[in-house]
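hey can u run this one w/ copper (II) ion bound, need the C-alpha cells asap thx
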Amino acid sequence: MNRRRFLQIAAGGAAAGLAPRLAFAQGAVRTLRAAPAEQFLVGAANPETSLWAYGGSVPGPELRFKQGERLRIEVENALPVDTTVHFHGIRLPNAMDGVPHLTQPPIAKDGGRFVYEFDLPDAGTYWYHPHLGSPEQVGRGLYGALVIEEREPPAVDRDLVWVLSDWRLDRAARITDDFMSFMDASHAGRIGNTVTVNGAVGETFAVRAGERIRLRLINASNARIYGLNFEGHEPWLIALDGHPVAPRKAERVVLGPAMRADLILDCTGEPGARHRVIDDFYQRRAYRMLDLHYAKEEPLRKAYGAVPPLPPNPVAQPDLSRAERHRIVFGGGMMGAMPSQRQHRGLFWTVNGKPVPEHDHRHAPILALARGKSYVLDLVNDTSWHHPIHLHGHVFRVLARNGKAVQGSEWGDTVLIDPDSRAEIAFVADNPGDWMFHCHILEHQASGMMAVVRVA
Ligand code: C2O
Ligand code: CU
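ok here u go:
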C-alpha cells in the first residue's frame, strides 16, 4: 500500500487533531521517561501503533524555556534497550551532549537514569532525540521539541510547533521492524510510508482569518526530506535551525532530517476557506500533508505589520580572513565508492575515506581544532545521495553552496548537501570537547558516515 492510499484510508477515520502539546510548567521537576507506548497515528479507524515515546506520546513533551535559563531534566530509561538523549543544536558542555561512549555511558535499559543539566544560551527551535541505536529508537518515535523563547519574542497570535515525522507501517498500522536494511542504509535511508504532524496523520489544521502564527517546523524523520508549499499563502522565513535570518518570503521550505525552520504564517485566506499544504520534495511523489482550514469567524485583522527580524543569538562571528581551511569528503553509498563489504561489513559510507561504525570512537578525530580559532570547512558530497551534515556543540555559518556565496547570513547546525555538491561552512571552535560530526540520515550515520571533531 502506498502512502497516498494509506492517507486516504486514514482520512476515513476521525480527523486527527493537531492541538499544540502541553508544555511542562516552568520550574516543575522535569523527568523525561522513555518507554513503550501505544498511539493512534492514522486515525481511530485503524489500530493503535505500539511505539516508543518520551512521556507517553509522540512527539514527547514540548519543552519550553526562556533564553538564558538552565535546563535540568532527569531521563528515566524504561525501554528494553540502552539509550541516551541528545539535545540537538544546543551549544552545551561536552559532558551533556548525550553521545554514548564519547561523552557519557549509555543509560541502561529497564530503569537507568541520567540527569542532563546545562544553560541555554541561544533562543530558537531545537529538539531532542536518542543518540544510540538511532535508526530504530528515532524510527519508533523517540523525539520531542525543545523551544527556547527570546527574552522578548515577536508578537504573534499563536506560537506552535509542527514536529514532522514519518513511519513505515504495515496494514495493521504496526511499525515494520526492518531497521537498517541494506536497501535503506546504502541508498536514501529509511523513508516511511506514513507522514505525521505532531504524531498523527494530518487532515486539517484549524486557523482563523487574520491570524499571525509563528510556526516552528522540526524534521524529526530518520531520512525523509520535506519541501513544503503553503498554497495560497506566503509565509516568512525568520529562522533556520533556531538562528535568525533576515525575514524573507519562503516559497518552498526545504528541511532535511534534523533541520528546523521558523515561519511567520499570516492567515490571509477567507473565512471558511481551505488551503493545502503540499510536500513535493521528491519528484512525482507530491502529496497533501494537510489542509489549513479557516474558521467561519470574521478576520482577526485585515492588514499585517512588517515582520521584524529576531534578535541575533550570542554566536561568535568567524574571522574569515584568518580562518584555517579544511576539506572533508563524504563518500560511499550505492552508485558510489562503497567500502569493501569483505573488510567493512554493513558499512556503506565514508568520511575522508574511512567508514566509522556507530559509536566506535577508537578512530582518531578527523580534525583537531584550536579553541577560539575560526575554521572554514569545505564539505564535499561525493555521493549520489543527499546528506544533512550535522556538527555538535557549535553553530556554523553557511558561506557558499557549490562555490556560490549564500546571500545574507545563514546560520545552522545541519547543512543539507545535494548529491555531487559542496557546501562551505565557517565557525569559531569555541566549545571544547569531542564533538560528533555526522550525517543525520540515521541509517547513514549508523553505517559509516560519522566522525569526531576535537576542540582542545
Ligand atoms: Cu540530532 Cu548527532 O544529532
Ligand atoms: Cu547521509
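The longest helix spans residues 3-12. anyway lmk if its weird
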